[in-house]
Specification:
This protein is of the alpha+beta class and 477 residues long. It has four domains: 3-127, 2-Layer Sandwich (Beta-Lactamase); 131-242, Beta-Lactamase (2-Layer Sandwich), CATH 3.30.450.20; 247-324; 332-475, Heat Shock Protein 90. The chain contains 13 helices and 18 strands. It has helices at 13-21, 41-47, 69-82, 121-127, 131-141, 161-167, 179-182, 244-294, 297-324, 336-354, 373-391, 423-426, 444-454, and strands at residues 3-4, 26-31, 36-39, 88-92, 98-110, 113-120, 146-151, 156-159, 203-211, 216-227, 233-242, 332-335, 356-360, 368-371, 395-403, 409-416, 458-463, 468-475. The strands form four sheets. Strands 1, 2, 3, 4, 5 and 6 form a six-stranded mixed beta sheet that branches. Strands 8-7-11-10-9 form a five-stranded antiparallel beta sheet. Strand 4 (88-92) and strand 5 (98-110) form a beta hairpin. Helix 8 runs antiparallel to helix 9 (297-324) and helix 10 runs parallel beside helix 11 (373-391).
Length: 477
């Protein structure tokens, strides 16, 4: 029955959009002037229109009714009082083909404007009648498979939610648009959807890389054209499977295997190295004292240099040992606010030497985590130090945090304004011995990664041309 409805604050486009998209049938919302202000996905799929071709256009584009919406509403009410049979209207798709459907209207007065909600019932029933339509509905809504379907003109007539996520776009703004419009400004060879599939080009388990504005994906792609009974191409489809996490898992396994190999070597040789180093260091300390007492300044300087290098070798061996065997982690509830209050003076003193500003945006607002207090300090200091050194003589080191939306972890975000990390090496920075520093050992980030992994967390890095951000994810309470 046609009746008033309540949308809350109807003037809010986002509220109207959420409301109509929860409805299972084709729906449009029009204002008192007869202009369409919102449509839902079901209506777009049935009529073939793109959303932008309907919004702000007269409702007569779809409903070729000669009168006003007020007259239509009153006519429906009169019909309902006289008969139990549904009121039917004529509707028109984008090709000009006209059909009839049962209709219901609801109305809401909001401030100075009247809004009409128009249900077109049988449009949804026509699309969902067959098994094939139900399968498509499942593919587009309830699976992780990315699906795009093109018609013969290279217009996107179907798109799954997973595929739209890969594209970084709203599904409503993709349906019934030409691929040239969706990928405006992007060369054909770099598009996620290609018109060449309509020419018979097939893909089967082809790996590709795709980046939207927020994330980089590794995908496995299948694509093929679709023919009718006469063999004429009437469209094409493409299926994507996101294997980004799988590739990341494989890379972690490879990295852990390398670390295990290094660990075996380190464990077997560390003591053999440290024993002679201890003897050498002891004799050098004796020489240093003798040279000091004898006033042999040049020999004293040489000895001090040798002791510095001995200490450097000892430090390197210690890092080897940290990679080689499980660390005796002292699990406890750690207040990250206290951790950063203790390490900030160290970080800030290092930053002053380089002329770097330090901004700590999360002071007093960090959650509790389960971990090892001293090991976390080591990680944060190391990554902050790397960021300071990467910026050179000016820049800002910013420390903040956020809650990871994909899980039960919080992220400490350490951002520098340096030159960034080139894409061709960003996947290697956690590899043992890989370093871009002249005097670096290439073990610092490997050690940090192992510490965080042992605590049940992760380290991610993002760098987009200017600046680098390390995200240290930890389980929080």
């Amino acid at each position: 029955m046609s009746q008033p409805f309540l949308l809350g604050h109807v003037g809010s486009a986002g509220h109207v959009q959420r409301f109509v998209h929860q409805l299972p049938t084709a729906v449009l919302v029009a204002n008192q002037a007869g202009s369409i202000v919102e449509v839902n996905e079901q209506l777009l799929r049935v009529t073939g229109y793109a959303r932008e071709h309907l919004l702000r256009h007269p409702v007569q584009v779809i409903l070729p009714y000669n009168g006003s919406l007020k007259q239509l509403y009153e006519e429906i009410l009169e019909k309902e009082t006289e008969s139990d049979s549904p009121f039917e209207v004529t509707w028109r798709d984008m090709h000009g083909v006209e059909r009839t459907t049962a209709v219901m209207m609801q109305v809401q007065q909001a401030e100075e404007t009247m809004y009409y909600l128009i249900y077109l019932f049988q449009l949804g029933q026509e699309r969902n009648a067959g098994l094939a339509e139900r399968i498509v509905a499942k593919l587009t809504h309830d699976t992780s498979v990315g699906l795009f379907v093109l018609d013969a003109d290279a217009t996107i007539v179907e798109a799954s939610h997973s595929a739209c996520k890969l594209l970084g776009a709203d599904r409503l703004n993709i349906l019934n648009k030409h691929v040239d419009e969706v990928f405006a400004g992007i060369p054909e060879q770099h598009r996620l959807i290609k018109k060449e599939w309509l020419d018979g080009v097939k893909l089967h388990n082809v790996p590709i890389f795709w980046s939207n504005d927020s994330q980089r994906y590794e995908l496995i792609v299948d694509a093929n054209s679709i023919q009718d009974e006469s063999g004429k191409t009437v469209g094409a489809f493409v299926l994507f499977k996101d294997i980004t996490n799988l590739r990341s898992f494989e890379q972690k396994i490879e990295r852990n295997e390398r670390l295990a190999m290094i660990g075996q070597i380190a464990a077997g040789t560390a003591h053999e190295i440290r024993n002679p180093l201890t003897s050498i260091k002891g004799f050098l300390q004796m020489f240093l004292q003798s040279f000091s007492e004898s006033g042999m300044d040049r020999e004293k300087t040489y000895t001090e240099i040798m002791l510095t290098e001995i200490n450097r070798i000892n430090s390197l061996v210690s890092e080897f040992l940290l990679l080689s065997k499980p660390r005796d982690v002292q699990y406890s509830i750690v207040d990250l606010n206290v951790v950063f209050e203790e390490i900030l003076p160290i970080v800030e003193s290092q930053a002053i030497l380089y002329g770097i500003d330090v901004k700590f945006l999360s002071r007093g607002n960090l959650p509790l985590v389960v971990g090892d207090n001293e090991l976390l300090k080591q990680v944060f200091i190391n990554i902050c130090k790397n960021g300071i050194e990467a910026m050179g003589e000016q820049g800002t080191l910013q420390i903040s945090h956020h809650i990871d939306q994909d899980g039960d972890k919080m992220s400490i975000d350490i951002h520098d304004t340096g030159p960034g990390i080139p894409l061709y090496i960003i996947d290697k920075i956690f590899d043992p011995f890989f370093t871009t520093k002249e005097e670096g050992t290439g073990l610092g980030l490997s050690v940090c990664q192992k510490i965080i992994h042992d605590l049940g967390g992760q380290i991610r890095v993002s760098s987009k041309g200017y600046g680098t951000t390390f995200h240290i994810l930890l389980p929080y309470l």
